[in-house]
Amino acid sequence: MKLSRVNTLLLITIILVNGITVVLPFTPVLLFAAEGRGGQKQQRLEQAVRAEPSVNTPNRLIMPAALSDQTVFEGPNALTLKQGVWHRPQTSTPDKGGNTVFAAHRFTYTNPRGAFYHLDKLQVGDPVGVVWNGKMYKYTVSEIKTVGPGAAYIEDPTAEPRLTLYTCTPLTLPKDRLVVIATPQPQETTHE
Amino acid sequence: MNDTVRFYLLLSLLLLSIALLWYAVTAANRVVLG
């Protein structure tokens, strides 16, 4: 093969490799735009939050406004983040009240592509559902804030039941933490 | 620039690109949340 042809192949390969590196982190944006906020998927997820799950449903986190329905994984260390949403050990669970904390990567090139990629799409007042041990716990987003990576207080136990979700922010330079706090919907409070 | 020089230049760029992609793929796993 002539060297000039090898050079052309090398150039194409370089463009492809760099294309993947640059474009892949932004593909969820395109998918989100295609599905659209307020579209069928969001309505289906909102319906799922309102419904009671079957007993065998695995623990899940449903965020209709972020078009997200993810399995929640348990694990002792950060390796669990490779699977998806991680229920932080030492924090509470929805059935016990207190502060239930879920963390996930914003974006990874390997699966899961972006468990909390669209966490920034949540707004105060949006519904969030957690299926825990076959029961649906309904929350409403009450606070959204950005804190530094050392802000461990976001995992502190609380007297009132709450759900704390956090991930890295901003997407391109993940130096801080995006924190979303949700409180139980009124009907849930009466059950606690 | 002759083809041989261009070949080594492109080969270096390809290796650099692969290293960058590898770094990007593994970087998230080095970040410890919270």
Describe the structure.
The complex is a heterodimer of chains A (192) and B (34). Chain A is an alpha+beta fold. Chain A has two domains: 1-35; 38-191, Sortase, Chain: A. Chain A has helices spanning 3-23, 27-35, 40-50, 186-191, and strands at residues 60-63, 68-74, 85-87, 99-103, 127-132, 135-147, 162-169, 176-184. In chain A, strands 1-2-3-4-7-8-6-5 form an eight-stranded mixed β-barrel. Helix content of chain B is 82%, strand content 0%. Chain B has one helix and no strands. The model of chain B has no long low-confidence stretch (mean pLDDT 81). Chain A binds chain B through residues 3-4, 6-7, 10-11, 13-14, 17-18, 20-21, 78, 81-82, 88, 103, 105, 107-110, 149, 151-152, 154-155, 166-168, 174, 177, and chain B through 3-4, 6-7, 10-11, 13-14, 17-18, 20-21, 24-25, 28-29, 31-34.
CATH homologous superfamily descriptor of the largest domain in chain A: Sortase
Would you tell me which CATH topology of the largest domain in chain A applies? Sortase, Chain: A
Oligomer: heterodimer
Distance between the termini of chain A: 74 Å
What's the tally of helices of chain B? 1
Unreliable runs of chain B, pLDDT <50, ≥5 residues? none
SS elements, strand count of chain A: 8
Shape of chain B: rod-shaped
Number of β-strand runs of chain B: 0
What attributes characterize this protein structure?
heterodimer, A: 192 residues, alpha+beta, Sortase, Chain: A, eight-stranded mixed β-barrel, 4 helices, 29% strand, B: mainly alpha, 82% helix, 0% strand
